[in-house]
């Protein structure tokens, strides 16, 4: 029984006077306990919207249209706000945002903000909560004394690690990491990834890793879901996706990873065109304007997510053909 | 650049149309503009020079509907007095027009009167070739009082006689021994016990002119100044308050627009240049700007204008404008800084486009929308500042703005005359509000943070 | 008037932080020094402006002094000495600066006293009025601003917006006039002039109550126009903060909108609130000077009105300088408080 199960989730933003931005347009996936799901796609494909939808912290103009989000068997979309606040958010599911985002309130000390999360959801006294907070900071290799500093005094990598510590305060079952390594230098990146892997094995957390970086996702995830224009293009185990991808977009993504190997002189590939406008997406298969393998059918009919082999599902009319 | 500006104007209008506060402000403003334009028609009197239109501190005419017994103006001009007489005929002889009448001339002017006493009575007579003139008034209770009684030297040229209840002479004639000005009340009311009761009924003016031969009467008018006039009464010099109010609109708009324009013009230029030049020049300019920003303008204006007494509208507006550009300079500079960082500016420079051209053609159009909002927001401040200056009697008395109206009211002790003190304030507030709403709506459009998080 | 100042948080920050950012890692001490220098420079600038006006005055100042003032001859001599009226321009300027900065404003043409003495006598009255009005304006303004931000888009929000904006458009002194007419002359509920009844009550409570009773109308007039700015700034800044990234994280942490608004957002808007308090002080101070005339309140305002009537230049310039000083001082204190409240301005690094 998967810990988190998302079924046919649809969500859009209302743009006054202009229409709806269909950021998440029918996605289905699930995560098992203790495993990592990587969600890849270009910027603007709806990944981050998916993240905020899962926690139901959408902005004022975001609306969930249909679908279900089953966490531990309970549909989060049907829960009232106060139940979400008390029992679900942060307790069962937490999130770590991009390093570029200011995840901390600049006028409160970092330590206080961690303690805030602890106290809000448990019965620990202030003293106990502070102790817990110090332990967490240690876990992410931040000195205890730094708890009394303000966020602007932390480096980028430190902030990200502190953010992870904050996410873990209540021992959530699911941790969503939205672009956790963007805006970090390579060394910090490696540290964060190593940390996350370690935490996962120690605590049995299910990790949803959202990123555009294919390399990271291939290294960290057990399963991968490829998103394009708000929809899933392909989904399966990491092995399936990396070694036997069936969607042209996935292939394009994998091909665009630069190869630095002795003797190899490969031209840097990229996917032609630009990501579609989610306000008015292309007809039929959303990828067709940029697909090197398109046929007339692609323009008219939207491909369904069909099983290719076991847990490997693909949404492409030509998935059975050997295109590469 | 013009085309880009036009297009952005259209876009701006498209979004602005939907903002209710902005539209409300615009409609209100439109009303004021209409009033300004219609002023010559609906408010014909000059706000300063047309004095003595009725008594001083007259009430609005329509208060009579609510039972006020304040008298209206009852003016009987020459034609009214002499026109119907069979004995008098009207002649025009080039520039001279007169009534020719044969002696003895007796004119009777009955006046039905059931109001409070009039505020002033003036009787004027221009006659030639007359020997004796007597003008009296007979009250409903039979008592008769004399306005004019004179033996004239025989003369072919016109002799001018005048009786005015406000002059000591006339009062002495009417009521010998009466030195203080209550002649009208003495005439038109009686004392019953402790109270003064208005005497209603028919009052008769009798004009008697004796002469040898025919007399020429150029002017014979009886003016009974009332206590009510027009839509908003009169001020301390008998001027029409309604006209002052309406004409004040135009003044307010002028002052507001001139000041705001100057403020925006100087501010934008200063900020643009400062931001564009950058470096220590920018820093110095901004420090200077901030220092000026910290100086409170109103007290400074008070000192300035007391020194430059009798500055006219233009000078005052200019001064107000000169003191208001500092905050705009800051905003213009920050916009400039944002744009300056965009690569197309560097590219333009590399191509060899001159600095001035970059500033004017590329950066300025981006500042203009913001300037609209600031322009609108400056106007209420300017109008209110002028109102304060008027209140403190620092503006010339002939500049009859709304502030001046309120100042006059307060100085003349007319605080109870709400038709005098309320309307200017309401108009002032309404006009300011309209610009505040428009400016606020524009500001909301141009300040993206105030929109909902998207 | 405060409409001029833009209320975008970034602008407020840049007004105060600009000198800081440009010179990077500044410690608190350097910050205070910088702000103090600013204070001094501004006062010098104000005095200079005053000097320019002084020079601009038509006619020979010595003659004017002798004629219009009817001061005692020794006072006139002292003034000539004080202002260096017989000396060359530069010396005059330096002397003038020194006088201004030591609050040595000469003698009033009207009262014949030293202007500074006159001011000292009247200043407390004005400050009392201003102090109470500013306090009320801030308290009411902030409360309404929070209400409006919490219930964004609702009727309450729209009303707060409307009345807050109206504060910019309303002439405070006119409100005072209306209030006086209705409640003073009309209903007879409040006194018509002055700040105390004559003769004043003898017991402490009586005195206090009497003063409060006299303050009601003028304070109401000043507060009605004064609360708009704080209300709008609070509302806008709060909404601004609510669009920040960390608010999303706070919601994800399970905090309710109320929690976020009252605990986090409010603390974040403290810096702009301090700034708007300083601005409100300046606004209400200037407003009070005019409103005092309406209520015959024995403060600086009435003093100015009398001074204008008789072209009492020393008084006008003196009061102007004092008011400017008070305003600049208020901003200065606000800047210092700003550093205390915003941790980002502490020792960096």
Break the fold down into its secondary structure elements and pairings.
The complex is a heterotrimer of chains A (324), B (454) and C (349).
Chain A: E1 4-15, E2 19-31, E3 36-40, H1 47-54, E4 62-71, E5 74-75, H2 81-88, E6 93-96, H3 110-121, H4 126-139, H5 156-168, E7 174-178, H6 186-203, E8 206-211, H7 214-220, E9 223-228, E10 231-237, H8 238-243, H9 248-255, H10 296-300, E11 306-309, E12 312-314
Parallel strand pairs in A: 3-8, 3-9, 6-7, 7-8
Antiparallel strand pairs in A: 1-2, 1-4, 4-5, 9-10, 10-12, 11-12
Helix pairs in contact in A: 3-4, 4-5, 5-6
Chain B: H1 2-16, H2 20-42, E1 74-76, H3 78-82, E2 88-93, E3 96-101, E4 105-113, E5 120-128, E6 132-138, E7 144-151, E8 159-164, H4 168-174, H5 183-188, E9 189-192, E10 195-198, E11 201-210, E12 215-225, H6 241-277, H7 279-294, H8 297-307, H9 313-322, H10 326-340, H11 343-351, H12 355-391, H13 402-411, H14 418-446
Antiparallel strand pairs in B: 1-12, 2-3, 3-12, 4-11, 5-8, 5-12, 6-7, 6-11, 9-10
Helix pairs in contact in B: 2-6, 2-14, 6-7, 6-9, 6-10, 6-12, 6-14, 7-10, 10-12, 12-13, 12-14, 13-14
Chain C: H1 9-22, H2 28-56, H3 61-69, H4 73-83, H5 89-101, H6 115-150, H7 155-169, H8 172-186, H9 204-226, H10 228-242, H11 245-252, H12 257-268, H13 270-295, H14 300-309, H15 313-341
Describe the structure concisely.
The complex is a heterotrimer of chains A (324), B (454) and C (349). Chain A is of the alpha/beta class. Chain A contains ten helices and twelve strands.
Explain what the structure shows:
The complex is a heterotrimer of chains A (324), B (454) and C (349). With 324 residues, chain A is α/β, with parallel strands linked by helices. Chain A has helices at residues 47-54, 81-88, 110-121, 126-139, 156-168, 186-203, 214-220, 238-243, 248-255, 296-300, and strands at residues 4-15, 19-31, 36-40, 62-71, 74-75, 93-96, 174-178, 206-211, 223-228, 231-237, 306-309, 312-314. The two termini of chain A are 36 Å apart. The model of chain A has no long low-confidence stretch (mean pLDDT 85). Chain B starts with a helix and ends in an 8-residue tail after the last helix. With 349 residues, chain C is mainly α. The two termini of chain C are 39 Å apart.
